[in-house]
Design brief:
By secondary structure, the protein is mostly helical. It is built from 4 helices and no strands. It starts with a helix and ends with a helix. The structure holds zinc ion.
Length: 125
């Protein structure tokens, strides 16, 4: 019984790892597309209005890219935690992360409570 359970969990972990890796690849492609887009328009000549518009687009793209970079590093972190055998456990309090949270955000390495605490510290800093 115990063996059957651990085999099933290991099988799930393989699936989760594939999912995390696929998500990381999608982010990498998106980041690449964003960089290419910024690069390709850099040489174009804009009038004043276009330039203002362009600046806000560039700022948006930069914010987007920084979000992608954060998400990518969280994914890489989740994969490292998974490989180390700690997947599904909160890295702050050690509680089991709910299956619902993990299926919604498989890259989670904190329970909802600790994530909330970490996020509020982050935004306060
Ligand atoms: Zn926790």
């Amino acid at each position: 019984m115990l063996n059957a359970t651990s085999v099933r969990v290991n099988g799930d972990l393989v699936q989760i790892r594939l999912r995390l890796t696929a998500m990381a690849e999608v982010l990498e492609e998106r980041r690449h597309a964003l960089a290419t887009n910024l690069e390709s328009t850099r040489e174009e000549v804009f009038d004043e209005l276009d330039r203002a518009q362009r600046i806000s687009e560039v700022n948006f793209a930069i914010a987007l890219e920084s979000g992608i970079v954060d998400a990518s590093s969280q994914l890489a972190h989740a994969i490292a935690v998974l490989d180390a055998g700690g997947y599904g456990l909160c890295e702050d309090c050690g509680a089991r992360i709910s299956a619902a949270r993990l299926s919604f955000r498989p890259e989670s390495t904190r329970c909802l409570t600790c994530q909330g605490t970490a996020d509020s510290k982050h935004s306060a800093a």
